[in-house]
Amino acid sequence: MPKRSDIKSILVIGAGPIVIGQACEFDYSGTQACKVLKDEGYTVILINSNPATIMTDPETADHIYIEPITPDCVEKIIKKERPDAILSTVGGQTALNTVLSLHKRGTLKKYNIILLGANPNAIEKAENRHLFNKAMANIGLDVPKNDIVHNMAEAKKALEKIGLPAIIRPSFTLGGSGGGIANNEDEFYEIVKNGLNLSPNTEVLIDESILGWKEYEMEVIRDKNDNAIIVCSIENIDPMGTHTGDSITVAPALTLTDKEYQLMRNASIAVLREIGVETGGSNVQFATHPDTGRLVVIEMNPRVSRSSALASKATGYPIAKVATQLAIGYTLDEINNDFTQCTPASFEPSIDYIVCKIPRFAFEKFPNSKQTLSTQMKSVGETMAIGRSFKESLQKGLRSLETGLSGFDTPLIKELTQNTSLKDKQTLIKKALTNPCPDRILIIAEAMRHKISLKEIQEKTQYDAWYLEQIQELINEEAQLIEHGLPKDKPAFLKLKKQGFSDARLAKLTHQTEENVRKIRHSLNCHPVYKKVDTCAAEFEATSSYLYACYEGNALQNSVCESAPSNKQKIIILGSGPNRIGQGIEFDYACVHAAKAISEEGIESIMINCNPETVSTDYDTSDKLYFDPLTEEDVLEIILTEQKKGHLQGVIVHFGGQTPLKLSKALEKNNIPIIGTEPDKIDLAEDRKRFKDLLHSLDLKQPKNAICHKISDIKKTIKQLNYPVVIRPSNVLGGRAMEILHNDNELNRYLDMNTAFILDGPILIDKFLETAIEIDVDVLSDGTDVFIAGILEHIEEAGIHSGDSACCLPTYSLSKDLVKTIETYSIKLAKALNIKGLMNVQFAIQNNEIYVIEVNPRASRTVPFVAKATGNSIAKIACKLMIGKKLKDFSLKSPYPSHYCVKEVTIPFPRFERTDTCLGPEMKSTGESMGIDSSFEMAFYKAQEAVGNTIPIKGNILISVKDSEKERVLDAVNIFKDQGFSIYATQNTANFLNKHNIPTQHVYKIKEHAINVVTLIEQKKFSLILNISDAETQEDSYDLRRTAVMNQTSYTTTIRSFNAMAKSVKTMARLNNQYHVQSLDELDYKQHKQ
Amino acid sequence: MKTIDTFTSNSDHNAVLVLSTGSFFIGKGIGCLGKTEGELCFNTGITGYQETLTDPSYAEQLITFTFPHIGNVGTNPDDLEAKNVFCKGLIIREDITNPSNFRSHTHLNNWLITNKVIGISNIDTRALTTLIRKEGPKHACITSVEPGQKIDIKSIHSAIKNKGTLEGQELSQLVTCKKTYTWSEHSFQLGQDGYKTLKKSDLHIVAIDYGIKHNILRCLTDSGAKITVVPAATSATEILSYQPDGVFLSNGPGDPHETAKFSTPIIRELLDKHIPIFGICLGNQLLSIAAKLTTQKMTKGHRGANQPVQDLQSKKVQITSQNHGFCVSQTSVPENIEITHISLFDQSIEGIRFKDRPAFSVQFHPESSPGPHESRHLFEEFIKMIIRHKREKKHAKT
């Protein structure tokens, strides 16, 4: 059957900003979907508020709206574009929810829109627990036993039905508070009683506990002819109780017999049919009882998901692409398998390797939160590793994480030191084993080292024995290495490498340098080979170039390598590894552009990366893909292989953030050319002393600063600089332990809190520029000419990490002269650093003085935003400049467009309990949104709405501001007052505002009264909250901010942002509270005059 | 690297796989030590190694498992497809691990030893699979020795270099049952006491055992029939003496052309009597030959659980379990035969139906085990065909 001809235009809904649980896998799936639809000749309209995506690149769709993904906004686009259909299954939960509400409010019907992929009924059935359970019963599938009770008599009956242990949750309490797990009858009745009291509608949900059961996922695709296939099975090593996104997972499932696997397969397909997913991909989650094999269905997602992205990378089978083709009417047998060309997509991939996915966490950013994993996802990224055995795959995965692991390194265990006695150690380790935490697999290894029995480890962790034994074997090998040192013959060495031991780990275990181990390995002629991911376990010849490293064969024979390096000119791009806070999708975006640029120039582009969520690891983004860890060892081996034939021009390290940069020294040492700005210039910008000298020679200012080598020097140094200062340890990355200090009290507290870091190395202290405006500048240079690609003005004042502050392009409050000076300074810096490619400079402006904060001679986080704002594809251009093109070869648009673009960030505060929501010098955000409009105010409004911090147009506003800032809020509060808002404030602020003729009602602080700010926020009394506190009052007002976040009340903690909100409200009122939507192709970019 | 003629084995390298072409792979012995020969093939299934190893169709073959971890779930008394192991050996990538599965009884390695199976591990099975794909099926030999002993690759090679493939070999006689027996066991139900027994039935099917997989018998039982299993060469007269409502032609090993030499007259006689017939795999090939089609040796065969087959009438695709190295040729399809199924991997014939007889067959394995269950409806169709035929016969009489 050919594709549908009754539709001409299709609206694709993206997933919006990167948040925990919804990350760049939706850029991957969305980009694939758009590409398919465009290739099929449909007009593609796209909405996605996330500018850092490949999906929102001009060539991906015909009309791209970077607008808030809300039902209202989507309806505006529908009204304007009148699409024939909507594809809602590639934009995560955001897209599904949006479509569901469009359906409910009748928009789809009104505009006669066909829904492609999942229909509203299917979405509802999959999401609504009650309907889902009913559907499962219809097809004879088991779900965890469950009941809803309203009194103790019902509870008794429920207990008989469900048994123990049981999970008890009161209805409608925030975050499920008041619930718990009952292991015996007493506990059961106590928790139920308590829950009934707490629940506003005296209702308690009781579920059979399946904690500790084995967890599986099946990735299913179905077409309109009811052909269904399983793309991949995934087994969670972490048992039920840990969110699958936070679990280490393995593909394919390794501990199922065919009889059990086929049961799950049948059930998966039956679920799709019953839920009514007519075409497309879905994932179905199961739990099985480890001793009886009883199978229960946990949930299903009627759309592509994080797991489907993982399954696509794990097998090579492009789920999102195929799902989109099915959505427009094709059937599986009509679609070709890209890898073999000669076979159809209607088959089940067979793989001949093991895939491990390991999540990456960011608990260090939220130190007050307990490092315990639960059913709420907390990881911010993930890495995937491919190996020919589970051990090889797992150890590759561990070192791919870039958390300092080279394998099964020793984890930190609470209270455990070298001096602890063995018995106490065992006790502490056993205690640690029971807590599902990010390091659990390392603690398991540690338990094995301390002779804790497998049986006991299994009881405490409920990991399947198969995985534990594999880890045990690795730990046994390690013990051998510690005892006997490195093997001297190839067979033994190869045996170790086949189990995934990295050179770095071998070096650590045998007390020598990694370089030394590598030398020995090379002298034994022991190298990895590369095998293809081909969807078919070599049954057919694969034309693709999707490869992974493994050690193969034996010492007596040559092993077979499939990398087949070409005779061409080639360039390797190093990707950015797993997503983390501070290094996310923006860098993957840049790497994808680099690959495209290189291919466009007729050079073979070779990507190395290990993040399965990304577009960069799509098999057709680059000419060749190595899915491998970004470590010195792994990268150098790939380079050695590629150098065997053709000409490797060099390696690009400037696009993937810190990950590849850290490798540049090793590359230089091995005489591998680095393309673009020289590594020495990177060092020049990063070395504090050299950089200081450089600025001095260029006659540029920087905030006064100093380095302290002794704690005793710190106070003296601060005296010279004067408070406030920014303090941070030099050896800690990513803004960790970075703080602004205003007085000695704060300093003492800081020193107490961070002793560990401080003792470790020098401390850096900078004069903090109060109320300064921060500026980000992205610059392109070919080594001769310099182009200012974009100047971004931060909304928040200096002191907040640039990654966490909102910003605007073009600048919205600076004078022309200042902008001119910023340009001049940036050009000076670019020339001094001999930039070839991109450079990012951060300035701070205080009293019209411009200070240089830092310079990054590489692609920065702001690159995709600037590209979308100015219409210049700066990452791609930068890459071409790096390989020899000149700026004058490009037709550039002006970096000062007539529209305004505002970026705002999302921060995962709700997921991390006990975390203050104040912004600071340490970055915490996971993603960003962009608002575009003709005025700054409306662009700001849209950016806020897009991250869910919608600026209210009416209602009550709560203000609580520290004394020193009260004056500065007056204008804004007046605007809110004039717009009809009612003003509420805490005592001092209320007094102050009343004194300034702003009628303000007083609300109590928490300690003052039973009805206080917190209870009022919980009752949704306020539509907006402004809270500014200093270090002393911060603790006091913590609950206020926390409650605002947990109750989804819009809030801000900075004055500049509050002012911007006030202006937005005023402008919105002028527009009758309606804004316009505009696609990128409608924006009026001016040509840049050279 | 210079070529190796002999090497002294050690605990990690005490076995070698030598191909008739001279290619060889050094590895580690698993199962019994010794020497075994057969035709080399590969199977791409990820689960179900125990079912695969006990599938009689693998007689005289060495099975390469493309999935690297084999043995994870151990072995158990339920996942058997025959009482004995007929394959000649197995080739795997990784060491056999300790089993972890609630149904596991015995470590795979112990099970191999009990069943006297010789195998080799630590082989680059992907490189081997690529070799088979490119060069076609080859005769090969696994030799494993006590560590410390010498292995003479050259002499192993010279002993096998002139040996060919299974083309021209009749193997069903090797694996068929010696005596007629009846079968009444249902298919496996997890968590419900495993296998149940059929109570009573009005239908009677005779299954000709060319190397039948037990799960075929179980699926037939599930459809409600009582089954008599007869040896491969049982005469049509004897078969008819059991008064079957239908006859089933089983799967089995070897070159169908050779087996057909004795099976064709029997099948033709049954066809002439209008006995409803259903065949699977070798049964499909034998039915095809009886229908004057021919068969041919394939280059790499179809072995795995992910094979897409299209039902030409409904256009629906079924993911099937397959295991065959021969297929029915596309050339000169007789008038009275309809091609019902094709492989979407290589368009080869996967099923036929007689237009003028109640008979059909498929090349793939609807009984799966291992593999997807989605074509099990074919057993129902067979039963429906039998009932329809019975009714028609009754009408004809009255």
Q: Can you put this structure into words, describing what you see?
A:
The complex is a heterodimer of chains A (1090) and B (398). Chain A is α/β, with parallel strands linked by helices. Helices cover 36% and strands 20% of the residues of chain A. Chain A has 37 helices and 38 strands. In chain A, β1 (9-13), α1 and β2 form a beta-alpha-beta unit. In chain A, α7 crosses α8, α13 packs antiparallel against α14 (440-449) and α14 packs across α16. With 398 residues, chain B is an alpha/beta fold. In chain B, a hairpin with a 5-residue loop joins β17 (337-343) and β18 (349-354). Chain B starts with 5 loop residues before the first strand and ends with a helix. Chains A and B meet through α9 and α16 of A and β3, α3 and β15 of B.
Largest sheet of chain B: 10 strands, mixed
Tell me, rounded to a whole number, the average pLDDT of chain A: 94
Q: Specify Rg of chain A, calculated over alpha carbons.
A: 29 Å
Helix and strand run of chain B:
EEEEHEEHEHEEHHEEHEHEHEHEEEEEH
Kindly report the spatial arrangement of strands forming the biggest sheet of chain B.
Answer: 10-12-11-13-14-19-18-17-15-16
Q: How much of the residues of chain A is beta strand, in percent?
A: 15-25%
Enumerate the spans of chain B where pLDDT stays under 50 for 5 or more consecutive residues. Answer: none
Overall geometric form of chain A: globular
Approximately how much helix is present in the residues of chain B? 10-25%
Fraction of residues in helix of chain A = 25-40%
Decide which structural class fits the backbone of chain A. alpha/beta
Mean pLDDT, all residues of chain B: 96
Shape of chain B: globular
Q: Report the radius of gyration of chain B as a whole number of Å.
A: 21 Å
